[in-house]
Amino acid sequence: MWVGRRNVRQRARRVIAQAPGTVVVAGGDGTINTVASLCVEANRPLGIVPAGTFNYIARNLGLPTEVTPAVSIIIDGHVRRVDIGEINGRIFLNNAGLGLYARMVEQRERDKRRFGRRRIVAFLSGLRTLLGRSPLLTVELVADGRPERRRTTTLFFGCNARQLEDFNLAAAACLHHQKLGVLSLALHSRWEIAMAACAALIGRLDAVSALDTFCAKTVRVQTRRRTVKVALDGELARLRPPLEVSLRSGGLQVLAPAVEGSA
Description:
The two termini are about 30 Å apart. This protein has helices at about 10-20, 30-40, 55-60, 65-75, 100-115, 120-130, 160-165, 170-175, 190-200; strands at about 1-5, 25, 45-50, 80-85, 90, 95-100, 135-145, 145-150, 155-160, 180-185, 210-215, 220, 230, 235-240, 245-255. Helix 1 (about 10-20) runs parallel beside helix 2 (about 30-40) and helix 5 packs across helix 6 (about 120-130). The strands form three sheets. It has a six-stranded antiparallel beta sheet. Strands 11-10-9-6-13-14 form a six-stranded antiparallel beta sheet. By secondary structure, it is of the alpha+beta class. The protein is globular and about 55 Å long.
């Protein structure tokens, strides 16, 4: 059964309760995330027809972004188990981010509603937010058992290799070891903000000196704030600290092309 974007969660929940087998969703990464979370809960396979702005989830799985070839993959019926990120019980297939990144997502959605859901709108909106005020957030981290205190503009947890390769190769390499790619960006001056904006423009965040990258299977984030605004695959949520972030191996069943060399 096909699930549209409107009232996605309620409709997907009804589909899963009433109909057996694969659940198929057509939409962007945020819509796919919503339906995928329900499929994880119900241990049901997910079929994807990409229909978003960036389609990072589909591209990471090797899915075609055109409708007919994507449907052919679903009909073929090959099920793969893929790793997913999890934060306080909420899953993410691309990333979860707080601080500046969450504000960028929030502003981007406002601008898309006003100017249309196009890549250039998303890019210019993100650039404008990056060039604005970027206060530092004090957090206590425990990454794979290692505690540290950090002042950061944004914390970003990635589990999508295709997306991470566009911006930071070191973070993308973490996924080969079944760990999250974690990025911490601390912008202290207007110069650092301008350099980060330029790096984002050319897709080379790995060249930013204010960016720290590390790998971790689990990360605990504590802050004095009562709630923290977190962006998960482009959708915003308010979560209560501490934030418990982890990579869940094989957490989602998805219909996708077989990986070369797999059985």
